[in-house]
Specification:
homodimer, alpha/beta, Rossmann fold, 4-stranded mixed beta sheet, 7 helices
Amino acid sequence: MILLISGPSGAGKSTVYQELMRREPRLRFSVSTTTRPPRAGETEGVDYHFVDEPAFDRLVAADAFLEWAHVHDRRYGTRRDHVRQLEAAGHIPLLDIDVQGGQQVLAQLGGDVVSVFVWPPSWQALEERLRGRGTDTDEVIATRLQNARWEVGFADRYTYWVINDDVAAAVARLQAILLAEACRRERLPGPPVRAAE
Amino acid sequence: MILLISGPSGAGKSTVYQELMRREPRLRFSVSTTTRPPRAGETEGVDYHFVDEPAFDRLVAADAFLEWAHVHDRRYGTRRDHVRQLEAAGHIPLLDIDVQGGQQVLAQLGGDVVSVFVWPPSWQALEERLRGRGTDTDEVIATRLQNARWEVGFADRYTYWVINDDVAAAVARLQAILLAEACRRERLPGPPVRAAE
């Protein structure tokens, strides 16, 4: 099982899944690979795997990415082997990726993916959250809002919709989704009880 | 949304859903209609709707049943209008019916039904539970075990499998299933946030 979370910037995704990860020790964040240079405080292998452009090219050529995309002139991708390693260790990989990447993951992994779109409670709340960061110019905020409008156009491709009207409630919904998915027949190894027993 | 629960006699279904109903006030037990005479302590409209054979015939002729079946020379059925009334009042109807009836409900209501098959933790546990009641003869127990073997043959038709290895854990799984299902895109009225807002 792989947990795919998408949703517009400002919907509060990371707050929700950080709390979710505290409650669900099987979840492990899948660290993306990027050509963007590290920002202050970012750690290689924790926030991102930082690579240069030729290294990213080689990974693309080797089909190493489950998904990758251009965002703001930089490239971001999820390495197939990283996701597989998490699964092999008994974890549930958590992928926080945009709708472009989400489509690639769904196309490739299909039924193994539990897909969740996180919505802000309202458009106004989203704008307030984006402004509240206080770090971005009006132009950047306008771009993010435009991008958010584009992202929600893909929400129909996701199985679950979680509205982040309240962080605790949103976390409880995600936890319920994980537990319920683990009870789906097709995810279970076989009948727990055989008549011949 | 309608919650359909099936599983062999002795799997502990009723213990699980009685506790579930205490935690989920929206759930309402759908009371079956039967031609079986009331046993001591049973109340009309609470345990069953008790009717005579001609009355049952008339209900069958009027297509009043969502499902009905013969069990041990008696007939049992779920009235369509009873289920609709519960839904109209904002409740989630809970149907505890055998696999025969379950197939009829799934065939008629399809996607509105959340179907759960409750498994005993083992065949031995099932037999012990059936014997533990102390009220049945060996012959009755043998019939119930045979019937249980037949019922588990239908488990593949159910979306969720809940193993009743521990009542609290089984209730938590069912609660998670209800909450997760309420987050499925197709059960939601539409996007919570529109770009035009």
